[in-house]
Specification:
The protein is an all-beta fold and 118 residues long. The chain is built from no helices and 11 strands. The strands form 2 sheets. Strands 2, 4, 5, 6, 9, 10 and 11 form a 7-stranded mixed β-sheet that branches. A 4-stranded antiparallel β-sheet has the order 1-3-8-7, with no helix packed on it.
């Protein structure tokens, strides 16, 4: 069990930026891959981005590639999602995830709301 707490969500105009943070507890943070998913009202939860244990490799959904950047600071037990050029379609609850590998993300935060106005 890895407690995860997201922050940084809010209301922003289209074309604006937000940075989400996810703080994790535990001494083994550096052993886990991390990721971000999002869920819009009435829609299934969808993959956004993930990052490997060391931060050497990152992967993005096509819908956010070139606009979003995932990063991590293992010394601070924190993963970030920098979101630029936001669109109304990005409106969703964003969830931080963690797991043994990027293919097995299994622990979830409670989410933070991101709303993009047109």
């Amino acid at each position: 069990q890895v407690p995860l707490v997201e922050s940084g969500g809010g209301l922003v105009q289209a074309g604006g930026s937000l940075r989400l943070s996810c703080a994790a507890s535990g001494r083994t943070f550096s052993l886990y891959a991390m990721g971000w998913f999002r869920q819009a009202p009435g829609k299934e939860r969808e993959f956004v981005a993930h990052i490997t244990r060391t931060g050497a490799l990152t992967t993005y959904a096509d819908s956010v590639s070139g606009r979003f950047t995932i990063s991590r600071d293992n010394a601070e037990n924190t993963v970030y999602l920098q979101m630029n050029s936001l669109k109304p379609e990005d409106t969703a609850v964003y969830y931080c995830t963690a797991g043994p590998t990027t293919a097995s993300l299994r622990w979830w935060g409670q989410g933070t709301q991101v709303t993009v106005s047109s």
